[in-house]
# Entry
Amino acid sequence: MGSSDGYATITVTVNGDRQTVSVDVRKALVDVIREDLGLTGTHVGCRTGDCGACTVRLDGAVTKSCLRFGASVDGSEITTVEGLSDGDTLTPVQQAFWDEYGFQCGYCLPGMLFCSTELLENNPTPTDDEIRHAINGNLCRCTGYTGIVRAVRHAAAIADFTAAMPAESTTALLDPMPTN
Ligand code: FES
Ligand code: FES
# Structure
């Protein structure tokens, strides 16, 4: 990373594309994504980490991008909501949100999709309480959450997420009561 006059040059891999941009060091990552990388599917809501509209995956971790400086992610891999689908082929979670009316305006969708996907990768058969717990850092002003919970349940039914589970979780699934 180079820097001068309040700007830093960072190189990131965004949705599989390696990009180098010069960013204002005061800018939050969400603004770098929207303004410098041109990916406006990542939304700005509260800027305080409460609403989840700005959620992305940063080096694999679900992250609220309003809480990070863009200049701090040099060398990272970022997936935004635009990077979830394979062209016109939706992920099972996206398809389930579409099928089950899991969104209306879509403002909350980045956070809902990333948090639901992360949940299912770690717990492919969640209860409704576990779904509600997983999405509780995301505010939806439209749906009343019922369609969202239904959508996550539907995603669990239409796809096998066990392949994405971390090794220790898979072991726990196969052997729910390990002896040591
Ligand atoms: S804008 Fe980041 S959590 Fe609300
Ligand atoms: S669909 Fe509008 S905020 Fe959730």
